[in-house]
Design a protein that fits this description.
By secondary structure, the chain is α/β, with parallel strands linked by helices.
Length: 330
């Protein structure tokens, strides 16, 4: 039975991966400080092969990494487009601190473990065509602190491999979506649009029938979206196959212009109401125009292909956010 230490494993992507691993015979320990949404009582907490430590990663002792076969580094500050520009220094500082500390502890206490770093499609934020894994090292540098930090994190991981023999995997999810993620809500109950990712933001706007419908920029930005179930399955296959010292883009088959996505979500949520038109808000300075990924490597090496389309993604997200708005429960 392989043992997995999932840093940040109670978060959005992490919770899907934990479920997938538990369902396939892994023993999983999650370390999370619940800094984004507060404590979340996931359905897998009572599983006999699951363990939870409520801690900041940087407060762990190196000895707490001992005995694990895999260390998944999901812990990071992450959010939507306004979030990236609201706390750029904090993102770059904290995410680098967390990653470097996790690498050091793995090398010290579990040197044979495979360290799985969750990077981001934002490393490709200046590319103007569909990207593959080779583009990560042959492209213009990112211009947001988040994208740059994620790319630097890849260099940290590879550097630890070259210098100290760290076994690693680099995973780049493309716009993870699905139930479990909420719009950003202040203590006063005000929703800060743009702080969370675009689909939960748009679903909530459609639920409240926001008129006109607020959107950043012209709506011509293009994104590839991936259900977190697909990402979790891809990661589990990597572990099953004992793949290491490699990197993978994990992309769904859902590529949309943001404006078209808004209309599609509105039609799903409000089938009896016409779309109210857009209110175009100023786009942030580093507005990413084009982010489309290619997962041919994952298909070839892992035998993995995405299974969940945009209709399922919208239905899944809508069900979760409606439950949250009606009950106040995550």
């Amino acid at each position: 039975m392989a043992k997995v230490l999932a840093l940040g494993g109670a978060g959005f992507i992490g919770s899907y991966i934990v479920r997938e691993l538990l369902e396939h015979g892994y023993e999983v320990t999650v370390v999370d400080n619940f800094s984004k949404y507060g404590f979340i009582n996931h359905d897998f907490y009572s599983h006999p092969r699951f363990h939870l430590k409520i801690k900041d990663v940087r407060a762990l002792y190196p000895a707490e990494f001992k005995g694990y076969d895999y260390v998944l580094c999901l812990a990071a500050l992450i959010g939507g487009i306004r979030y990236f520009h609201k706390i750029p220094y904090q993102i770059a500082r904290d995410n680098t601190e967390i990653l470097a500390y996790a690498i050091d502890c793995t090398l010290a206490a579990a040197p044979e473990a495979v360290f799985v770093y969750f990077s981001s499609s934002m490393v490709y934020e200046r590319m103007q065509r569909p990207v593959n894994e080779e583009d990560a090292l042959n492209q213009p540098v990112p211009i947001t602190n988040y994208g740059m930090q994620k790319l630097f994190g890849e260099f940290l991981v590879r550097g630890a491999h070259q210098e100290f023999g760290l076994n690693y995997l680099i995973v780049r999810p493309f716009n993870a979506v699905g139930s479990g993620e909420l719009p950003e809500v202040t203590a006063e109950g005000h929703v800060e649009f743009g702080m969370a990712h675009v689909i939960p933001d748009f679903v909530y706007k459609a639920l409240i029938k926001q008129t006109p419908f607020e959107i950043f920029g012209d709506g011509e930005q293009v994104r590839t979206f991936t259900h977190a179930k697909d990402i979790a399955e891809a990661v589990r296959i990597m572990l099953d196959k004992n793949v290491k010292n490699d990197d993978f883009n994990i992309c769904g088959d859902n590529t949309y212009k943001i404006g078209d996505l808004a209309r599609k979500i509105w039609a799903k949520v409000n089938p009896d109401f016409s779309f109210p038109g857009f209110k175009h808000l100023p786009a942030p300075p580093a507005d990413v125009r084009f982010r489309i990924g290619v997962s041919e490597k994952a298909k070839k090496v892992l035998g993995w292909e995405p299974r969940y389309n945009m209709d399922y993604i919208i239905e899944d997200t809508l069900k979760f956010i409606k439950h949250w708005t009606e009950t106040g429960q995550k």
